[in-house]
Amino acid sequence: MSELREILQKHGFQMKKQFGQNFLTDGNLLDSIVAESGVDETTTVVEIGCGAGTLTRAIASRAKKVYAFEIDVKLQPVLAETLSGLENVEVIFRDFSKIDLKALEREIGEYKVVANLPYYITTPLLTKLLEESDKVQGVSIMVQEEVAERFCAKENTPEYGAITAAIALKGSAKIVKRVSRTMFYPRPNVDSAVVRIDFERGRIAVKNEKAYRQTVKCAFLNRRKTLENNLVNYFSVSRETAKKILSEAGVEEKARGETLSPTRLAILSDVLIDNGIL
Ligand code: SAM
User: Fold this and answer.
1) Torsion angle of the four alpha carbons 31, 32, 35, 36, in this order, in degrees rounded to the nearest 10
2) From the CB of 22, is ligand 1 less than 6 Å away?
3) pLDDT per residue as tens digits for the range 140-185
4) Given 3-state DSSP classes, what are the helix, strand and coil percentages for the chain, each rounded to the nearest 5?
5) Collapsing DSSP states into helix, strand and coil, what is residue 39?
6) In the chain, where does the domain assigned CATH 1.10.8.100 lie?
């Protein structure tokens, strides 16, 4: 910890809250995060937000190649020092949310994401990977603990929501490590957890992914209302049509959206397509 502080000080680097800069320094923790991610010497890794390069070093020691993205160019002299001598690391000073993912994937092929993400971009970045990526094999990300719970939730729980269903379409998610706030510098106000998502193409059969996303939006439109009500409101269909759709999808008449598993949501989405609603 003091070594990192010294390096940051030496380069006159000031931490920026708006970029979610909370760095990890504990070597054992960093190594175990990478070990849990399933990265090996054949893996290309994309790291989002490499900060002072502590996690980057740990990834580089196990991976074939690391593309480390960082938004804050002021970290350039710090990273030049902390990553010096590592030949399998390429640092790219870009805002990852503005990256053309398809173009990146044409260049680097299949890859895994390993990242200690700033909290404010967790969901948008994950959504980008879920919706746009053809080549991501897995994602291991450190996120706020309660967000991690949401990513891995089961239906019929308060944590289950649209993001859970979106993840489940593409892969299986589990919490592989809980990390106390005391492990970060500076210390954030919340504890964190590492979620690992293993992508499996065609995990849940669905006719159209966009239609599935619309169905999920509809299901969680108003959690307190029945799915029938949400269907009527979201798709402007009659009550009779909504009832018919639910029956064809094997959903109980009074069910709420949050009781439907991702597989059932996929069936509902296909029924909506078959009835010309989506
Ligand atoms: N990986 C380092 C670690 O574990 O110590 C730093 C983690 S820190 C929580 C998040 C990092 O992401 C910061 O260095 C921040 O500047 C960077 N960042 C924030 N928004 C970003 C974006 N849109 N694209 C790329 N990097 C970003």
Assistant:
1) -150
2) yes
3) 999 999 999 999 999 999 999 999 999 999 999 999 999 999 999 9
4) 45, 20, 35
5) coil
6) 209-274
Whether the CB of 53 sits within 6 Å of ligand 1:
no
CATH 1.10.8.100 fits 209-274, yes or no: yes
In which band, very low, low, confident or very high, does the pLDDT at 1 lie, cut at 50, 70 and 90? low
Q: Whose CA is nearest to atom 1 of ligand 1?
A: 50
φ, ψ of residue 92 to 5 degrees: the values are -125, 115
CATH 3.40.50.150 placement within the chain: 2-199
Q: Which of 54, 66, 71 to mutate to test the pocket of ligand 1 (most atoms within 8 A of CB)?
A: 71
What's domain 2-199's superfamily in CATH? Vaccinia Virus protein VP39 (3.40.50.150)
